[in-house]
Amino acid sequence: MSFFITGEYIKLDSFLKAVNAVCSGGEAKLIIAEGDVRVNGAVELRRGRKLRPGDRVELGGHAYLVER
């Protein structure tokens, strides 16, 4: 699934909310802290990680591609 951004980047926690993978920022924080999110194949523990076009986010068997 592709997700289009209009700016230079989107933060990981905001991205998870935007694709409806989580219901709130608090839920995003917990899921990220537990190591359940991968960015470009590596576990990502920083909720403020800046995602740019070309990045791939994986969570719960779903994959999302960040595009502009």
Protein described:
This protein is α+β, with helices and mostly antiparallel strands and 68 residues long. The chain has one domain: Structural Genomics Hypothetical 15.5 Kd Protein In mrcA-pckA Intergenic Region, Chain A. It is built from two helices and seven strands; from the N terminus they run ββααβββββ. The strands form two sheets. Strands 1-7-6-3-4 form a five-stranded mixed β-sheet, with no helix packed on it. It has a two-stranded antiparallel ribbon with strand order 2-5. α1 packs across α2. The longest helix is centred in the middle third of the chain and has 9 residues. It is globular and about 30 Å long. The mean pLDDT is 97.
Side by side, the strands of the main sheet go 1-7-6-3-4
Task: Supply the number of helical segments.
Answer: 2
Superfamily at the CATH H level? RNA-binding S4 domain
Distance between the amino and carboxyl termini: 13 Å
